[in-house]
Amino acid sequence: MTKWARSQQLFEQAKASLAGGVSSNVRLVAKPWPLFFERAEGAMIYDVDGNGYIDYMLGQGPMILGHSHPAVLAAVNAAMQKGQLFAGQHQLEITVAEKLVELIPGAELCRFGLSGSEMVQAAMRLARAITGRTKILRFEGHYHGWFDNVLISVAPPLDKAGPREHPNVVPGTPGQTASALEDFFVLPWNDLALVEKLFAEHGNAIAAVMTEAMMCNTGAIPPEPGFLAGLRRLCDQYGALLYIDETITGFRLGLHGGQGRFGVTADLSSFAKAMAGGFANAALVGKRAYMQRFAEGVNHSGTFNSNVIAMAASR
Q1: What is the DSSP code (8-state) at residue 219?
Q2: Most CB atoms closer than 10 Å: which of 21, 103, 208, 308?
């Protein structure tokens, strides 16, 4: 008998009805089995065997205020008494949008979704519609979600990564199609000279530079001085959009996100995780002239977008 016997038992039970016994592959990294939890409060999380842990992971990022924060729960409980999902407009989403516009550099208009992965897709679609181009530059080691067209070169095996100056575009999972890789250039993070060279050769094909404000998922590596400013300059010079994925950095490096921390303003930026205190909410924000295209034919939709519970938690 171990101190995690109940977790082991539940894992064996879960494997009969859940693929791999989990609902996210990330949870399979725990060995020899993932823990099962039953409650959490503040900085502490407790498993089904009664063991307590300090949650340094912040629930993978969303629990910036801690677990079961009274103010968040009170706001959600009060709001949900009036409804959970209208599939229509309500005042809370205006309140949250106004706060994002106030806090985030470059945020003039907003759209809401449910996850960071989802808003990455909206940003890429918008950038391509605005520029009429298809190629997107991204960086090795940066994570932009699990979808086929972005799970690329996050942690490629060294024998497949290619040379540093010209990395291969490496798929992240079986099941990705080769066509999903064709619209991306990949370069190492923090090498502005290589970015300048790529733009000189292919600048008229690049719709956007997609980057985290700092590398987070494969090592916490901040941008070198001048790197983000250099990306901003090159995008302006060649007519590409600068898109900063702040799913992880947003509201964790500061209220103004990584952009505020590092002094750069993106054309588009996305937020999730920490913005709703443990509830599912995400946003794409950006310059008015670009974001307005969603109201002029570029599709972005979703049944649960700006649902009452998510907006109340974010407020």
Answers
A1: B
A2: 208
